[in-house]
Design brief:
With 273 residues, the protein is α/β, with parallel strands linked by helices. It contains eleven helices and seven strands. The chain starts with a helix and ends with a strand.
Length: 273
């Protein structure tokens, strides 16, 4: 499939993000906020990842697909703590390379495989996986329905999916929603609410966990870590990106606290019949 110039630029940007996430200062910041140092780009903390493992009932017999896996967080950690088999899939090849190198270093490569692929056109046969996870991925993709449809296709009827997502709260004013588009992830807007999207694509919600308070705390800590290590972070990301990123995150904290932006964890199973 031929990709647009915009898609190519996005993939190249993510490649750079995953590479800079391996620098000492960015890994130290990630440890401080999320309790891990994979160079990930989601807001998933160690406690949240362990809860995902419990919700999916991961164990050695299960096959997990982690979509938008990037440099391996939290997919590799889920495999490590549950001994499940994990397949990582993402478009940026640099992230996948970093993840598989980490899997080898942690001696879990026998449980791990990876593919460079698009979440809206997964390169796997139908019904291949027992469980699916993705962390703050749908809010960074335009083709949300297509991704959810593909997830439904590749999971067993007895399987389950757990994912986190950042979204604009229903009922937000047009003014606040516009602010959220600027401050939030690139595709935070959605054509309808996630419950409706899930129903349309063959999923049934079994649990929802509001993570907005934790999200606000993590975002505040991120701003503190970036500003507290300003010279070192500027050396990695550059002056323009530093200033823009900190400003957007400060604005995002306000929008989370006033209820405009929310982060939530969904546990879903296939709808049968």
């Amino acid at each position: 499939m031929r990709r647009s110039a915009e898609e190519i630029a996005r993939i190249e940007r993510l490649d750079r993000l995953y590479l800079r996430g391996q620098t000492d200062i960015m890994r130290a910041i990630e440890r401080s906020i999320c309790g891990c140092d994979y160079g990930g780009t989601s807001w998933t903390t160690r406690d949240e990842a362990e809860n995902v493992s419990r919700l999916l009932d991961l164990c050695p017999e299960k096959r997990l697909l982690d979509i938008g896996a990037g440099s391996g967080w939290p997919g590799l950690y889920l495999a490590k703590i549950s001994d499940c088999d994990v397949t990582l899939v993402d478009l940026p090849a640099e992230g996948i390379r970093i993840a598989m190198s980490r899997a080898s270093a942690e001696l879990i490569s026998e449980n791990c495989s990876a593919a460079v692929g698009d979440g809206s056109a997964l390169p796997f046969k139908s019904g291949k996986f027992d469980a699916i996870s993705h962390s703050d991925v749908l809010c960074c993709l335009e083709a949300k329905l297509a991704v959810l449809e593909e997830c439904r296709r590749v999971v067993r009827n007895e399987g389950a999916m757990v994912f986190s997502v950042i979204y604009i709260a229903p009922g937000a004013s047009s003014e606040k929603a516009a602010e959220a588009v600027v401050a939030g992830p690139p595709y935070i807007e959605a054509e309808c609410g996630y419950p409706e999207m899930l129903e349309k694509t063959g999923w049934k919600i079994t649990d929802r966990i509001d993570l907005s308070s934790e999200f606000a705390h993590s975002t505040r800590r991120l701003v503190q870590e970036w500003t507290g290590n300003e010279s070192r972070v500027r050396a990695v990301v550059g002056d323009l990106e530093f200033d823009d990123y900190v400003t957007r995150k400060i604005n995002m904290i306000t929008l989370i606290l006033n209820g405009t932006i929310r982060r939530e964890l969904f546990q879903v199973v296939p709808s049968i019949g």
